[in-house]
Amino acid sequence: xxxxxxxxxxxxxxxxxxxxxxxxxxxxxxxxxxxxxxxxxxxxxxxxxxxxxxxxxxxxxxxxxxxxxxxxxxxxxxxxxxxxxxxxxxxxxxxxxxxxxxxxxxxxxxxxxxxxxxxxxxxxxxxxxxxxxxxxxxxxxxxxxxxxxxxxxxxxxxxxxxxxxxxxxxxxxxxxxxxxxxxxxxxxxxxxxxxxxxxxxxxxxxxxxxxxxxxxxxxxxxxxxxxxxxxxxxxxxxxxxxxxxxxxxxxxxxxxxxxxxxxxxxxxxxxxxxxxxxxxxxxxxxxxxxxxxxxxxxxxxxxxxxxxxxxxxxxxxxxxxxxxxxxxxxxxxxxxxxxxxxxxxxxxxxxxxxxxxxxxxxxxxxxxxxxxxxxxxxxxxxxxxxxxxxxxxxxxxxxxxxxxxxxxxxxxxxxxxxxxxxxxxxxxxxxxxxxxxxxxxxxxxxxxxxxxxxxxxxxxxxxxxxxxxxxxxxxxxxxxx
Length: 481
Description:
Elements: H1 3-6, H2 10-41, H3 46-49, H4 51-74, H5 76-95, H6 100-128, H7 131-163, H8 167-170, H9 172-186, H10 202-225, H11 230-252, H12 266-296, H13 301-308, H14 310-329, H15 332-349, H16 358-384, H17 392-426, H18 439-465, H19 473-479
Helix pairs in contact: 2-6, 2-7, 2-9, 2-12, 4-5, 4-6, 4-10, 4-17, 5-6, 5-9, 6-7, 6-17, 7-13, 7-14, 7-16, 10-11, 10-17, 12-13, 12-16, 12-17, 12-18, 13-16, 14-16, 15-16, 15-18, 17-18
């Protein structure tokens, strides 16, 4: 059975991938907007409620490369479609959660389903569309990221106001069931093995899970434990040992979980680093802006949702055009320019004060839609187009991994930096919840976060420039086989 017959209805396949992309991003954006409400309802502070997002992303990071490898071995469509059911089940359990602990556990199950979707979506699209159309197709999926993110804040604000925070998870259940039913037909033949082997490196997988979880868990808790505490130092020590053993194992395994040779490819390496830094910076706004809008400007949840929607709304218009344009002029100008636009956007966020209109904040957030819309689709096309076809599942998992690591680091570092700055100014630990007791201090600390995020964007742009040698990526790709 040839590749053409397997992917014979490429646009229908793309539509199904868009459903999964929409569902995963819808949940993330709804959860971010609901953080202040859940913080109040569950009687926990920002440092704790952030785990509703962090636990979700941490689980995804642990599974993405493993799922990508399994997809190359057993078929991408089969695992992708199973992801719909797992995600819908996890969403229902989140909605039924009556406690903070139960909610976190349910989010972990939901995240496993999301990893099945995320690791395979880009690989399926990249294998379905030729290079001349890949940017446009990934631009469409990028637009669906925006549509999901756009729908999330607005819909989340309405649902929370009308039915409470649990309703934001129920919305995923019918979408997941519909996606599974459609996928049963769409991916009936999408079970082709890309790697003719039954061998799976379980030891390498366990080492990776230990390494990534210990690293990100330690980083996420270091602000609470203290960066020089015994627990923090122990966590970093375990992570370093696990990473060393993991790399040693992968360099010697005949079928590694993570093919480190992919990072010899210039376009893959540069795009991965740039994506990591891009998401580190962007998630400084995703988590903290709702607290500014509700705790400082005293906007209600619905208005907060509409204001936050300015970023994905702009991206929904920019991403497809950017992907189309990258097929014609290449990714370098668009990716580097997009990160520079984001850097400028963060610099302008530092003009925000204690008395701002929602429309003024929305216009500033729209700049990130422009910048990320320019960056994401061309960058994904550059990264996925640089690897051999039989490694697309692995590459898709790694591409999604760096994105989610960036999200976790962005959340953790922004909250840690905010807390550190507040402590430096006030001389005491200042918990940040739904109500901001010291808005002037909070705003000053928030400006420190924004300046730092702007610097991260500039660093990402510098790495993006190094993909200038991407014209030789096919040769490098062949060398990595």
